[in-house]
From TrEMBL:
Residues 35-179 form the Oxidoreductase molybdopterin-binding domain. Residues 1-32 are annotated as: Disordered. InterPro entries: OxRdtase_Mopterin-bd_dom, OxRdtase_Mopterin-bd_sf. It comes from the Bacteria. This is DMSO/TMAO reductase YedYZ molybdopterin-dependent catalytic subunit. Coiled coil: none annotated. Transmembrane segments: none annotated. Signal peptide: none annotated.
């Protein structure tokens, strides 16, 4: 005796197995922010990287635009349970930005215009895993989505892809950022549902 009606194959999925547990697909790009949206004129924008020894490297907007750019197409996953597949970005790989930075650090604390921070293992920013992105779907990145530039770390929950990126502090010990201090998981792997501390 069969417990499944012939021809029934379960719920049809359009994600080809790319949807992490607890997530649902969206065609929109929801806007979620912890505070007001900073508006940074491009002639005042700056990206900095500071090593654990205090060495500081900086790029103006023009200098960032002069670096070789990638156009990754990636899936993104928000901790609030939405996922968006096949999103297309343009930006500079962190491999390029950190190529001439000498460090013994294992972690990074990313700083945003507006005061937001988030922490990541340095290895999660390297080897083609992360970008400073300034275009989304062929257009300049809008301020509400983190423009003029945001961090893009698509293999982690999207709060790790800090909007309005301003600086990357390389540190020897993991230092919790804004949401991590409020109970979010220190790492944030969507495939392991690492939403909150203890997950």
């Amino acid at each position: 005796m069969s417990f499944v009606t012939r021809g029934f194959h379960g719920r049809r999925r359009d994600d080809d197995g790319r949807l992490p547990p607890g997530q649902h697909l969206t065609g929109d790009f929801p806007v979620l922010s912890a505070g007001p949206t900073p508006r940074i004129p491009l002639d005042e924008w700056e990206l900095w990287v500071a090593t654990e020894e205090g060495t500081r490297h900086t790029w103006s907007w023009a200098e960032l635009m002069a670096l070789a750019a990638d156009e990754p197409t990636v899936d993104i996953h928000c901790v609030t349970s939405w996922s968006k597949l096949d999103t297309t970005w343009r930006g500079v790989s962190l491999d390029t930005i950190l190529a001439d930075v000498e460090t013994a650090a294992d972690y990074a604390l990313v700083h945003s215009y507006g005061g937001y921070t988030t922490n990541l293992p340095l290895e999660d920013l390297l080897d083609g895993k992360a970008w400073v992105a300034y275009e989304f779907e062929g257009d300049d990145l809008h301020p509400e989505h983190g423009g003029p530039a945001r961090l893009l770390v698509p293999h982690l929950y999207f709060w790790k892809s800090a909007k309005w990126v301003h600086g990357i502090e390389l540190v020897l010990e993991d230092t919790p950022g804004f949401w991590e201090q409020l109970g979010y998981h220190d790492y944030g792997d969507p495939w392991r549902e690492q939403r909150y501390q203890g997950d």
